């Protein structure tokens, strides 16, 4: 079952089509990357999903039902621009935001305390938001996004401004939420984070869906028959009959197989020529390479 389904969604601002007939589905329990270059239409899509704005045409379904104004209670959205009130105290602010998401005061207090304890920041309760650093505010924003235990979590650049320790801390919590069944839409320009975190992606460019699917399948579809080998012996010159050396660094060769040659042929060739190997592996394209290739194509 899909938590979210978008069908032919269009959003136009004046004469500009920010979202142009976009369709995709977010599987239940997945970590789903919503990717695209600047101005692609990601925020416009998120604002439609969270009912901040409406699509001009098209359909959005949340857990199979047409999206309605009750659904945002099941959604936690952490926008890229952080929106905390600077003059409020951390504790009262978190309670205020939790109550907006439908929690009663006692439950809100209990859940917020549990999160502050988890992050070892219980002493922040009476601090004003503007006394906190950017990274500290980010932690508070994260808590406010997850405190009502949403079934769908939308995180826009959740690690921007965080140091490596706090990045890991938040990442671990995201994984725990995922393990407990929360579906997560993750929007970022950091492709290495997408590789590490996401199982599915959709790539939006100029308002259109240009690529969608499982990360593993996408990488498989974009592979270019490249292999990396680390020989202990000199490579024979006749290797060029079955593969071209693309580059060599510190004794590690990247080779591209000739059309019609497969990895078994290459391995057999190397063994037949007495080449001993320390390493041999297929090189799949990175999401970064795929992203740049797809975006530049259009
Ligand atoms: N309220 C608005 N009024 C007019 N144009 C808008 C509005 N919001 C977005 N746009 C335009 O729609 C397009 C898509 O913007 P959007 O913010 O959805 O992109 P994005 O993918 O989130 O970009 P980024 O990665 O830079 O945050 C852009 O050309 C932007 O200028």
General description of the model:
- Helix 2 packs across helix 3.
- Helix content is 33%, strand content 30%.
- The protein folds into two domains: 2-220, 3-Layer(aba) Sandwich (Rossmann fold); 224-297, Alpha-Beta Plaits (2-Layer Sandwich).
- The radius of gyration is 24 Å and the shape is elongated.
- The longest helix has 16 residues, at 164-179.
- With 298 residues, the protein is α/β, with parallel strands linked by helices.
- Bound molecules: adenosine-5'-triphosphate (ATP).
- Adenosine-5'-triphosphate is lined by residues 13, 16, 18, 36, 38-44.
Topology record:
Blueprint: E1 2-13, E2 16-27, E3 31-35, H1 42-49, E4 57-62, E5 65-66, E6 75-78, H2 90-100, H3 105-118, H4 134-146, E7 152-156, H5 164-179, E8 183-187, H6 191-197, E9 200-205, E10 208-214, H7 215-221, E11 226-231, E12 243-249, E13 252-257, H8 263-272, E14 277-283, H9 287-297
Parallel strand pairs: 3-8, 3-9, 6-7, 7-8
Antiparallel strand pairs: 1-2, 1-4, 4-5, 9-10, 11-13, 11-14, 12-13
Helix pairs in contact: 2-3
Family: Belongs to the ABC transporter superfamily.
GO molecular function: ATP binding; ATP hydrolysis activity
Protein name: ABC transporter ATP-binding protein
């Amino acid at each position: 079952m899909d938590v979210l389904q978008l069908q032919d969604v269009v959003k136009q601002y004046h004469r500009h089509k920010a979202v142009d007939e976009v369709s995709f589905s977010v599987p239940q329990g997945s970590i789903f990357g919503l990717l695209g270059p600047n101005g692609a239409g990601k925020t416009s899509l998120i604002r439609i999903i969270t009912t901040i704005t409406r699509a001009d045409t098209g359909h959005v379904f949340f857990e199979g039902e047409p999206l309605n104004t009750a659904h945002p209670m099941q959604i936690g959205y952490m926008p890229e621009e952080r929106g905390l009130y600077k003059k409020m105290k951390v504790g009262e602010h978190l309670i205020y935001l939790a109550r907006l998401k439908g929690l009663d005061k006692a439950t809100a207090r209990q859940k917020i305390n549990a999160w502050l304890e988890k992050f070892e920041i219980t002493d922040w309760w009476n601090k004003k938001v503007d006394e906190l650093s950017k990274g500290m505010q980010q932690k508070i924003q994260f808590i406010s996004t997850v405190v009502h235990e949403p079934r769908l979590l939308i995180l826009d650049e959740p690690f921007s401004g965080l140091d490596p320790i706090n990045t890991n801390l938040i990442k671990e919590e995201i994984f725990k939420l995922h393990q407990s069944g929360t579906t997560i839409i993750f929007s970022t320009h950091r492709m290495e984070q997408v590789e590490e975190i996401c199982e599915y992606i959709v790539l939006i460019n100029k308002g259109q869906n240009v690529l969608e699917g499982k990360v593993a399948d996408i990488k498989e579809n974009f592979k270019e028959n490249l292999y990396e080998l680390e020989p202990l012996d000199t490579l024979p010159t006749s290797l060029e009959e079955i593969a071209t050396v693309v580059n060599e660094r510190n004794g590690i060769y990247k080779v591209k197989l000739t059309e019609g040659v497969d990895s078994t042929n290459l391995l057999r060739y190397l063994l037949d020529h007495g080449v001993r190997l320390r390493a041999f592996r297929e090189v799949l394209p990175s999401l970064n390479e795929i992203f740049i290739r797809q975006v530049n194509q259009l």
